[in-house]
Design brief:
The complex is a heterodimer of chains A (about 290) and B (about 400). Chain A is an alpha/beta fold and about 290 residues long. Chain A is about 40% helix and about 20% strand. In chain A, the strands form 3 sheets. A 6-stranded mixed sheet of chain A has the order 5-4-3-6-7-10, sandwiched between helices. Chain A has a two-stranded antiparallel sheet with strand order 1-2. In chain A, a hairpin with a 6-residue loop joins β4 and β5. In chain A, α2 packs across α4, α4 runs antiparallel to α5 and α4 crosses α10. Chain B is of the alpha+beta class and about 400 residues long. Helices cover about 25% and strands about 30% of the residues of chain B. Chain B has a 6-stranded mixed sheet, with helices on one face. In chain B, α1 runs antiparallel to α3. The two termini of chain B are about 35 Å apart. Classes of the chains: A alpha/beta (about 290), B alpha+beta (about 400). At the A-B interface, β8, β9 and α9 of A face β2 and α2 of B.
């Protein structure tokens, strides 16, 4: 039984490397420096649809038209969006998928999700935001608000284990972010998540960031081999010859799924980023926060 | 190509490339791999049929299999089978009188031994060259050589030779083959006394009438001392008749002579002589044979001879021994010891070494070719595979 579980969920846990905290510090400093270069002084990383107006930026196709600067559009004939600074007391909610499918790798997807979550939490704490970490396994959330709470964040994430079937879809069905939540970060493979559930998170000027973590062999299956695919969240087995035709069929289906998420994000002002689990977590953090 | 192998057991190593082929072609067992996108695989791709994918042999694997096969064959040491020309055995014929005694079924011991040898030669696919004491007998074995006596067996104990006799010699051959007819005891004449036979009955000796008249021919041109002693001996032995079967010829050999001094058995004489023909030398001056003999003939190569010095009786006894020894037995006379039982038949082929078979072609060209081919294929496989082997 244990061997079968290990076969289906080969990388269930989270272990941060000894230099991980140093990497977090470096990432935080670099993001802050880049922000200052790009936008001048201030917490522009927190720029979003809050109350305090700080300027305009060009409109991106698919964004919520409610943020459109209609007067500028009338005068300049070009679409711009109002940019406001978030209130200092806002809260970020980081939801991490800990279903069994996140134990797939290598490297393990849950490990990658935890690293990205730690990166986002670290940056949020430095910006003065309150951070709420919540996993899909039903465990109590962790709520922290000071930069010195980073060890607690790391400890919470290291305690996560990929198991069971409830994913982000189930979590969103059971828990809704409060009105004071200015940013919701979803980290998982998004396999059980419906677009409707994600769209339901919008409102109250809230930003929704979707980090979709996939293992390398999920993004680019090995060719020329025979593989028996295992369902990490069930008993399913599917032996497949990975010839070029089969791999192409799979890649087309996956690409269609990812494209639908991209389209959804573009249309509704969400952020969506696909992150291979073998890439540095810094890439995902930058992609999600620096859009 | 007609091949033979120096190390045929090494052909077992051909199992190695065969094993490589089998392992390479065995159906591949799918590798279990968990995936969060499992549903995409289940819904949009076809399942494996037959439990696994049958793999193809990649080119570099084909090359390495061929290299291993070539190396295995080279290891076994192939060589072309030499086309051996028909071999020939040299038959050393025993010319003893006993060879003409009856064996069985109306055949003589010689005929019986010859028949046995010819059957063996036919089975072995060899030819036979009949020789008498080393000299090739170009004609059929006939009555002409029956008085020659046994050959010098030891001189012909060599590979490729076969002794043809009626009984196993005192010193059996080590290298030569042996065909002995064997045969029962055959009573009959063992000698003559004047015109009477001396018969062996199987238990005792008896005399009877009826022996042929025999005579000795003494050459008139012989030196006087020799002529005189030969005629006196013939008178004594009852062989001085002018008619009858010739039992011995004492003849002078013509040729340019030189001064010689010779002697034996207590006498010595000087004279003029040349070289006597081949035979058993009885008298010689240094290296030059002056008197030789063979059964039935004495050759004297002396044109002149002074009266012998020394005891006259010693001169007469010395010559009478020569003439007695050279006297051919009467037709049908066989020595008593030869008339006895010859024992069981013996049949043994000779050793075939000793250069009877021609040298075989060297085997290195074929082995070297295979080894080079194996090395070349292996190198090519490594280049093509680049670590994928």
């Amino acid at each position: 039984m244990r061997a079968q579980a290990a076969e289906r969920v080969p990388f269930p846990g989270v272990v941060f490397a000894p230099d991980f905290v140093r990497r977090l510090e470096r990432l935080t400093l670099r993001l802050a420096a880049a922000r200052e270069l790009r936008e001048g002084a201030g917490s522009a990383a927190l720029a979003g649809a809050g109350e305090e107006f700080i300027g305009y930026r060009p409109y991106r196709p698919g964004e919520d038209l409610r943020g459109l600067a209609w007067d500028l559009l009338a005068r300049l004939d070009r679409p711009y969006v109002r940019v406001t600074r978030r209130e200092a007391a806002e809260r970020w909610s980081v939801l991490v998928d800990t279903s069994a499918s996140m134990g797939v790798g290598p490297p393990g997807k849950l490990q990658a999700a935890a690293e990205v979550a730690a990166g986002i939490a670290c940056i949020g704490l430095r910006a003065g935001a309150g951070i709420e970490l919540r996993a899909t396994d039903g465990a109590p959330p962790l709520r922290v608000g000071k930069p010195t709470d980073l060890p607690a964040v790391l400890g919470y994430l290291e305690g996560l284990t990929a198991h069971g079937t409830p994913g982000l879809g189930a979590l969103l069905a059971a828990v809704r972010p409060g009105a004071d939540c200015g940013r919701v970060v979803l980290l998982g493979d998004l396999c059980d998540l419906s677009p409707a559930a994600v769209l339901g998170l919008r409102g109250h000027g809230r930003e929704v960031l979707c980090g979709q973590l996939l293992a390398p062999h999920e993004l680019a299956p090995p060719t020329g081999a025979a593989v028996e695919w295992l369902d990490p969240e069930g008993e399913g087995r599917a032996p497949r010859n990975l010839d070029r035709r089969a791999v192409e069929a799979y890649e087309q289906a996956l690409e269609a799924q990812l494209a639908s998420w991209d389209g959804l994000a573009a249309r509704h002002g969400l952020r969506h980023h696909v992150h291979p689990s073998d890439r540095p977590f810094e890439d995902a953090v930058r992609a999600l926060l620096e859009a | 190509m007609d091949l033979e192998w120096t190390r045929p057991a090494a052909l077992v190593s051909l199992a190695l490339p065969a094993l490589v082929v089998l392992l390479s072609l065995r159906p591949e067992r799918p590798t279990p791999l968990a995936s969060g996108t499992f549903s995409l695989w289940r819904e949009r791709t076809e399942a494996v049929r037959g439990g696994g994918r049958r793999r193809r042999l990649p080119p570099e694997r084909v090359l390495i299999v061929l290299a291993l096969a070539c190396a295995a064959v080279a290891l076994a040491g192939p060589r072309r089978r030499a086309q051996e020309p028909p071999r020939t055995w040299q038959v050393i014929v025993d010319a003893s009188p006993s060879m003409h005694l009856e064996h069985s079924g109306g055949r003589t011991r010689l005929e019986q031994a010859r028949r046995t040898l010819e059957e063996l030669a036919r089975e072995e696919g060899v030819g036979l060259r009949w020789t008498l004491d080393g000299e090739v007998l170009h004609e059929e074995l006939d009555e002409g050589w029956r008085t020659a006596g046994p050959p010098r067996w030891a001189a012909f104990d060599v590979p490729g030779a076969v002794w043809l006799t009626d009984r196993v010699p005192e010193e059996p051959p080590r290298q030569a083959g042996l065909v002995a007819s064997g045969g029962p005891a055959v009573p009959g004449p063992v000698g003559t006394v004047g015109t009477r036979w001396l018969d062996w009955t199987g238990a005792s000796l008896v005399e009877r009438d009826g022996a042929p008249t025999r005579r000795v021919v003494v050459d008139d041109s012989l030196p006087a001392p020799i002529r005189a002693v030969a005629r006196a001996w013939a008178e004594e032995r009852g062989l001085a008749s002018p008619t009858g079967e010739v039992a011995l010829e004492v003849l002078r050999v013509e040729g340019p002579g030189t001064e010689v001094l010779a002697g034996r058995d207590g006498w010595r004489a000087s004279g003029r002589g040349c070289a006597a023909p081949a035979g058993t030398t009885w008298l010689a001056a240094g290296e030059r044979p002056l008197v030789t003999w063979r059964p039935g003939a004495v050759a004297v190569a002396l044109q002149e001879l002074s009266p012998p010095e020394g005891d006259p009786a010693a001169w007469a006894v010395s010559w009478s021994r020569l003439l007695d020894g050279a006297l051919a037995p009467a037709f049908g006379v066989v020595p008593l010891d030869e008339r006895g039982e010859a024992g069981e038949p013996v049949l043994r082929g000779p050793h075939t070494g000793g250069g009877v078979a021609p040298p075989r072609p060297p085997r290195w060209p074929l082995v070297a070719l295979l080894a080079a081919l194996a090395a070349g294929l292996g190198f090519l496989a490594l280049v093509l595979g680049r670590g994928r082997l």
